Amino acid sequence: MNTGRNNTRRSRNIGTAKQGHGQNNKFEIPSHFSYREPKFYFEDLKNYRSVARIIKGYLITFLIEETRSDCVHACTIDDITHVLQNVPAADLEDLPLIILRQPKRKEEILNPVWARYIYHAEIDKHSGSAICLDTMDVSQPTRWSKSLSPDLQDELERLRKDGHSIETTKRHHVVFSTPESVRETQLYRSLLHELGHHVDRTRDLTAFETKTSKDKEVFAHRYAEDLAKRLTGKGVLPFERIFDTESLDADKLRVEDFAVTGL
Q: What is the arrangement of strands in the sheet containing 172-176, beginning at the earlier edge strand?
């Protein structure tokens, strides 16, 4: 049970591996924290729009940042809403924000992540726990060291199953992504994985705080894997991308932030 105590605000661990975010993400950069300017880099959204949805009785606000010309949001709001409409309602409690974010170029180089769970985000008038999905520049492959831990080896195989193409050179595993494979990873795995972190934390905050980052990752991965299996068994997953220009127009969103050839 959540005690109501908010001891995470301004914690240097927010959005980092110590917090337990991410699904075996390979790189990390520090949260740019200053007591004079208490904002983390993933809270610094530019040119974004907000869209509200009622999902399983909860008001969830989507914050959608405009993309660069070489990036798009692989998952639409309707995609994410469809998935969340089929998860246990209690798991969405105290999760007011979903953020679709355009990372800076430096972040893409140093810290390319599919998603992150944020204990407590503060973005203008919006605040609370959040799941954040980053855009990916699929024109640029990512390189993984050939010296991988067993967990990262498993993740590499998951990426292969998601449709990412992987080539192995003398020094690296080179991962080539497409909008389709990014959507597969983010929508069917990362979104559920980060929701697992949220569930783990809100069920018992005290116990969560004593867990190691590895234990947090184990719980979130198991949660995502079990839920994905149940949703697949029910025929909820997989499904065709929901790209509705009328819906985007009604929400005053830019079509070019979501328009992908082939998706």
A: 142-145, 172-176, 165-168
In angstroms and rounded to an integer, the radius of gyration of the C-alpha atoms of the chain is 17
pLDDT in tens, 73-108: 999 999 999 999 999 999 999 999 999 999 987 766
- Roughly what angle, to the nearest 10 degrees, separates helices 77-84 and 191-203? 50
Q: How is residue 9 written in tokens?
A: 């605000």
Q: Which two tokens stand for residue 89?
A: 């309602």
Query: What's the pTM?
Result: 0.84
pLDDT one-digit tens code per residue, 125-166: 999 999 999 998 898 898 999 999 998 999 999 999 999 999
Domain ranges across the chain: 41-257
Q: Which of 16, 10, 11 is nearest to 117 (CA)?
A: 16
C-beta separation of 208 from 218 below 8 A: no
**The one-letter amino acid at 40:** F
Which amino acid is residue 239, in one-letter code? F
Residue 79 sits at φ, ψ, to 5 deg, of -60, -55
Cα separation, 86 vs 71, whole angstroms: 28
